[in-house]
Amino acid sequence: MTATVPMSRTSDEESAQFLRNRGTRRKKGDDPFPNIPPSTALPARHPVNILKRLTYISCSSYVLHLMGLWYEVIHGPDVNHLWFQIGMAISVAIQAVKTYLEMYEGRYKKRRVDYENCRTATHIIMFLIILATLVFHAALWPAYGGAKTMFIMGVFGFGILIPIMLVIPTWIQNPLAIILMTFFIQQYQ
């Protein structure tokens, strides 16, 4: 039988890099990642990036068209239209909070809009996004089932919504979103 040797916990802790530096504080303006080289990516408004995002939007819209989503949402008997209307109301609330943050806090008050300055609004938006996802999923489930509904939500979110937000500047996004949502809600009834 071999004897077990007790390991020294303090020697392991003393040698750990993250524990040795735990008393040091970074100053404001210090680079949080000094070992990462600067990015050589193209700027956000470069024509290649815009073309790539427009391609994502076009391909995603075409895939959703092939699945018959647009017709099914407006006229389909299998879609739960009450849940879809609740999802649209939540989307309007998300847009209202987004507009408040970007226009009032960002442009009018000249505050930097980030997590540190707007924690409550960030958490509200995160909660509303999760709630909207669940509600739209419940609305589309009877028509498409579970896997197709998740696929549709992913294609719409990552293939249409996010690229549109990256292509269009915020001062155009907010009024355009309000106009389009109002038009869609009016057509949906």
UniProtKB/TrEMBL annotation:
Keywords: Membrane, Transmembrane, Transmembrane helix
Pfam families reported in the protein's UniProt record: TMEM128
Highest taxon in the source lineage: Eukaryota
Entry keyword annotation includes Transferase: no
The protein's name in its UniProt record: Transmembrane protein
Record's keyword annotation contains ATP-binding: no
Spans traversing the lipid bilayer: 54-71, 83-101, 122-144, 150-172
